[in-house]
Protein: Dabb family protein
Amino acid sequence: MKKLLSTLCSVLALGLAATSLSAAHHEGGHDTEMAPSSVIHVVTVSWKEDASEAQIKAALDGVHALAKSYDGITRVWTKCIKAQGNREYAFVMEFKSEQALADYAGSDAQKEWYKTYYPARAGSTTFDITN
Structure:
């Protein structure tokens, strides 16, 4: 009987510990691996009617060049596989932090890229997203 009671107490303690750990995991908010602190800069774009394929390609290639020339950008995406609404293209830049995004605004790297981007761009909408 003593052994059975001891086993039941152990099982109960393990069950409570598991429940407690599970609750703590979900209580803490976001899993840092699934919800990183980096910032994604999502831009939807429509190109000017007279923009050539070469101009559009240069603008999108420039997004990749930014990742090499500006230290605060960690990754970029430029291949739009689906677009909704009045924009035909989108691209994404991932910044190390909110500060890296703030420092990018008006930077030499941004100004250099704008030389190829603005002549082809008709309009864009931007979303900056983080956790």
Q: What stands out?
A: The chain has two domains: 1-30, 39-129. Confidence is low (pLDDT under 50) at residues 4-26. The first strand starts at residue 39 and ends at 47.
